[in-house]
Amino acid sequence: MNRTPLRAPARSRQSRISALLQLVIVICAGARLFYEVEDHLQRRPAPALAAGSIHACPVRIAAIVPVGPNDPRRTVARDFAVVLADARGENHVSGSLWISASGQPFSVAFRDRNALADDLGGSIDPIVVRLPHEARLEEAFVDRYDDGRAPRPCAIAGDWSGAMTAALHDDMAARIGTPADTGALAAQAIRDPEAACENRSASPQTLDDVPPSVPAEAIRKKLTGDVEVRLDLDASSVVTATTVIASPNSILNAASLDATRASLFRTAIRRCRPVPAKYIFVVSYLYDRH
User: Fold this and answer.
1) Last residue of one domain, picked from the residues 137, 172, 197
2) Which positions of the chain have pLDDT values less than 50?
3) Helix (H, G, I), strand (E, B) or coil at 184
4) Cα 219 to Cα 19, 96, 235, 253, 258, distances in angstroms
């Protein structure tokens, strides 16, 4: 699986899956992914430098889980544990987080915390964040990185959404465990988000595209072509609606819708705020004659 960032083409086909129709069905990913299905953790290199004063920061969010004895995939809580990773390897880092919860942006400063290596190796040192009240996690990213000179604003990359917490794999949830809420860092409401954001935005993205289960009739008829699915994402990056808008054959529609609903996406971010968005997901069916 390719772990390099997705480069979306000019058209709105940001993700493709090629289903090779043979006696033995082989599914191969035709898009470059941000996310791996087996561990539900972002694995991506540091992004390219953004324009102006925004920088590509080496530190990213590797996982966020709620603190407490209940389901580690719940997205409504007061305390959350944030695990960081560093593209340069396991490292002690300082900076701040931007966390959007129930429509409100918060800032949390952290200092000298251990970040995992880019392959997620190392000792987990969760940053426990305490919101002023229970809220729904929507989006979080490393806001500023302190390299020992002056904290610098980071491009929105290596971020985390509530949908990703909901999809967290058992292995990672067990590895993080149940962090103690002692020493929790109080999240501070960002009073002027427009000024603090410095005009940072990001387009919707596919994080994990799940291959379709190709219908037997499609294999028998050797159906090929692109099924385009329009999906609606809420501010937590949860898929709320799916509609087939183009298809070579209706036999492929149900499998394409199922694949879309099983895939993982990140909604648009406008000036540091996650916003509902529409997105086109394309499932490509190709027939391999060999």
Assistant:
1) 197
2) 1-51
3) coil
4) 10, 51, 38, 14, 17
Q: What is the pTM of this model?
A: 0.76
> Are the C-beta atoms of residues 57 and 152 closer than 8 Å to each other?
yes
- pLDDT for the residue numbered 290: 55
Please state whether 157 falls in left (phi above 0), alpha (psi between -120 and 50) or beta.
Answer: beta
* Structure tokens given for 258: 């199922």
DSSP, res 42? B
End of a domain among 197, 231, 257?
Answer: 197
Q: Are 137 and 166 in contact (CB under 8 A)?
A: no
Strand (E) positions, 4-125?
17-20, 26-29, 59-66, 76-86, 91-101, 104-117
Please tell me the predicted confidence (pLDDT) of residue 169.
83
Domain assignment present for 65: yes
Tokens, residue 235: 């501010």
Q: Within the chain, where are the H helices?
A: 162-166, 170-176, 193-197, 216-221, 253-262
- pLDDT tens per residue across span 179-200: 777 789 999 999 999 999 988 9
* CATH number of the domain bearing residue 239: 3.30.2420.10
Residues 258 and 137 in one domain: no
> 140: domain range?
59-197
pLDDT for res 83: 95
- Into how many domains does the chain fold? 2
Type of residue found at 157: A
